[in-house]
């Protein structure tokens, strides 16, 4: 066993640049996963400083954890592409070494163990460095996000959580081992005599026309299907998520099948557009070793695709899903009254150091006396009922007087099943709940069914009084069983002025209460909707900052591909230099190849990312929220929101690729033509 690891270590050291690139990619994946958890923990520590805030926000903040873990896995997948590419190429270069060892008695099993030992060493070192680097990266990311967040988000101290550290390290090691499994099997199965043959430099490889056509048909068919017959119009919870995942996987499969043909097309177009021998050599080299070029371009495209898809999905989720009812209320000149300026951000709230965010009895009485006869209003209590939680088990629910709730109507809840005539008697008679279709389906209940939920004093039976959507998607529970669910006062009052009431005049009267009650704050719902958009931008900044690191892993792949390509063509480069090609010309050829790969990756990532936004929105739909809307305009609007990020990625991809190719170009061009030829 010691000899196997010794041999593996020597192989890694002999290819130390590629080994370092692989270690760096694993390190990034592990560090980003842990850092994402640190960001969520920092927000949690910054905001959840009291039991009241914990009830209101803990469930929403908990949604950050899976999102951040997902981004870490994306970076790890990018690392996996790099490692697969690296080992595939290095094993090809080591064919004669492996053949010699096989001829001397090395078995297939021992060959596999040597290669897997290399991967294990890379994975262990990368995971260990990733854990260490995460301590710095997490703080850097939090410091980067803070200026964008302003007062919207409060941050606290954060340290890595042990379960996340273990998960990240194990996933980094597992992805590393899985990435080398196929190259290891290929090396072990090669006959010794075949392996001893001199490896040939990769020639021009035409794309498989059938594969390209299949990829184009798959993507075009999926896009046509979701546009003409959107699954989101009929799919319901719990099928919406797995169906969306399936369609996205098919979309990615189409991208993978189509990519080699796109690379070949780009090479042919480049050959026509770029004059001279330099341009022809630059573009022709894209069609050599098409497998490794495809993997490199795929890694770049995949990173950009995920960034665009997440930006588009966040716009869909915040503006057209949970924020839909909120915007409807904003159009009626509604406003919130609370002890906190909910549009001002949590930083301002924390800075004020309130003893309680709940409205006191005298504040409530004065507020009700001011608005009585001029507006409809609801006194909103926040409670956590796991069975009725829209997200997970910690998301808040509203508890509201049903009569007051009916007064504000669609400003607070819109029915998809039932109506106020049937819901109001149920909610007045006992514990009645207005839930989203997703909550009803998760509990296997429907309109009129009874569901046993967790109350403060024990089980409590609640009747489903209606299905539909509310502000932020939260369940609404009648306050007839107030003491069974909370001992807190309401923390928010929604006020909807009557049609014959001047909203500005009513708002001025409420703000005048601050002379006697200085803690009262008024926030227009339209302003809060803007703040919700700003919150989405902050989340996107956090996501994009982490996903940019996936682009670095992709850039490592460009370095690796160009290193192998340059090494493989060393004799050709030496001959070109010997017959008069200058260093500048060869530098343009080498860096130009990388720029082309980056440009193709950027174009494919942009197009595939925008398509992914359309596929996600049109497949997932709004049925789980109880909303009925035309999905295509929503999908196009979400794609348009993500377009700016996509264009930035389109510009950045070839620039990153050019910078990544500088190292291989610099290394070989420092040699004289004779030195280059002598080393072939």
Strand content: 5-15%
Largest sheet features: 10 strands, mixed
Low-confidence stretches are: 200-204
Termini separation (Å)? Answer: 34 Å
Q: How large is the count of helical segments?
A: 25
DSSP, total strands:
10
Quickly give the structural class. alpha+beta
Average of pLDDT: 80
Helix content: 55-70%
Shape: elongated
Write a structural description.
The chain is built from 25 helices and ten strands. It has 680 residues and is an alpha+beta fold. Strands 1, 2, 3, 4, 5, 6, 7, 8, 9 and 10 form a ten-stranded mixed beta sheet that branches. The longest helix is centred in the C-terminal third of the chain and has 44 residues, at 525-568. 51% of the residues are buried.
SSE map:
Layout (H helix, E strand, L loop, with lengths): L1 H13 L1 H32 L3 H12 L1 H30 L1 H9 L4 H42 L12 H28 L2 H5 L12 H20 L11 H34 L2 H9 L5 H32 L2 H7 L4 E4 L7 H7 L8 H11 L3 E9 L13 E4 L1 H7 L4 E5 L2 H10 L2 E4 L1 H6 L7 E5 L4 E12 L5 E3 L3 H4 L6 E6 L5 H10 L8 E4 H44 L1 H9 L4 H38 L10 H39 L3 H6 L2
Parallel strand pairs: 3-8, 5-7
Antiparallel strand pairs: 1-9, 1-10, 2-3, 2-9, 4-7, 5-8, 6-7
């Amino acid at each position: 066993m010691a000899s196997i690891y010794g041999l593996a270590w020597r192989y890694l050291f002999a290819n130390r640049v590629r080994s370092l690139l692989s270690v760096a990619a694993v390190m990034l994946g592990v560090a980003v996963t842990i850092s994402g958890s640190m960001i969520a923990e920092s927000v949690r520590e910054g905001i959840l400083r009291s039991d009241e805030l914990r009830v209101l926000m803990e469930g929403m903040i908990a949604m950050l954890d899976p999102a951040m873990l997902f981004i870490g896995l994306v970076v790890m997948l990018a690392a996996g592409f790099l490692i697969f590419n690296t080992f595939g190429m290095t094993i090809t270069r080591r064919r004669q070494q492996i053949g010699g060892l096989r001829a001397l008695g090395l078995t297939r099993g021992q060959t596999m163990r040597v290669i897997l030992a290399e991967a294990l060493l890379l994975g262990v070192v990368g995971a260990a460095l990733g854990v260490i680097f995460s301590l710095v990266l997490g703080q850097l990311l939090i410091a980067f996000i803070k200026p964008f967040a302003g007062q919207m988000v409060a941050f606290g101290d954060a340290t890595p959580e042990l379960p996340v550290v273990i998960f990240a390290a194990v996933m980094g090691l597992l992805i590393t081992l899985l990435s080398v499994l196929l190259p290891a099997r290929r090396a072990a199965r090669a006959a010794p005599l075949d392996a001893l043959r001199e490896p040939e430099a990769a020639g021009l490889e035409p794309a498989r026309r059938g594969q390209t056509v299949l990829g184009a048909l798959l993507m075009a068919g999926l896009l046509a299907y979701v546009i003409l017959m959107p699954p989101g119009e009929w799919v319901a919870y719990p099928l919406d998520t797995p169906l969306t995942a399936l369609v996205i996987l098919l979309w990615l499969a189409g991208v993978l099948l189509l990519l080699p043909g796109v690379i070949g097309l780009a090479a042919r177009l480049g050959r026509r557009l770029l004059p001279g021998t330099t341009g022809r050599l630059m573009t022709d080299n894209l069609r050599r070793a098409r497998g490794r070029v495809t993997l490199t371009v795929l890694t770049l495209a995949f990173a950009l695709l995920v960034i665009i898809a997440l930006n588009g999905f966040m716009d869909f989720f915040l503006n057209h899903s949970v924020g839909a009812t909120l915007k409807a209320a904003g159009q009626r000149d509604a406003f919130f009254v609370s002890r906190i300026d909910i549009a001002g951000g949590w930083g301002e709230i924390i800075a004020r150091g309130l003893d309680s965010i709940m409205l006191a009895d005298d504040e409530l009485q004065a507020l009700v006396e001011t608005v009585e006869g001029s507006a409809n209003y609801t006194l909103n209590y926040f409670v956590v009922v796991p069975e009725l939680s829209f997200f997970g088990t910690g998301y808040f629910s509203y508890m509201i007087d049903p009569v007051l709730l009916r007064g504000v109507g669609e400003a607070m809840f819109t029915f998809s099943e039932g109506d106020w005539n049937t819901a109001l008697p149920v909610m007045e008679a006992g514990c009645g709940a207005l839930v989203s279709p997703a909550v009803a389906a998760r509990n296997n209940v429907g309109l009129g069914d009874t569901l046993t939920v967790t109350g403060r004093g024990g089980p409590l039976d609640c009747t489903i009084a209606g299905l539909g959507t509310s502000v932020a998607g939260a369940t609404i529970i009648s306050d007839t069983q107030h003491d069974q669910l909370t001992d807190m006062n309401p923390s928010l009052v929604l006020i909807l002025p009557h049609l014959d009431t001047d909203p500005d005049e009513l708002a001025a009267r409420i703000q005048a209460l601050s002379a006697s009650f200085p803690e009262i704050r008024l926030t227009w719902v339209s302003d809060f909707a803007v703040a919700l958009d700003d919150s989405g931008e902050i989340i996107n900044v956090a996501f994009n900052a982490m996903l940019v690191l996936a682009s670095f892993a992709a850039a490592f792949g460009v370095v690796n591909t160009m290193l192998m390509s340059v090494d493989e063509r060393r004799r050709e480069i030496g001959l070109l230099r010997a017959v008069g090609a200058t260093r500048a010309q060869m530098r343009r050829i080498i860096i130009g190849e990388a720029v082309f790969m980056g440009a193709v990756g950027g174009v494919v990532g942009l197009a595939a990312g925008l398509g992914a936004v359309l596929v996600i929105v049109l497949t997932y739909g709004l049925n789980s929220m109880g909303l009925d809307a035309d999905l295509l305009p929503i999908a196009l609007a979400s794609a348009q929101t993500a377009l700016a990020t996509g264009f930035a990625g389109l510009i950045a991809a070839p620039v990153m690729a050019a910078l990544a190719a500088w190292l291989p170009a610099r290394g070989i061009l420092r040699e004289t033509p004779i030195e280059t030829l002598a080393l072939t």
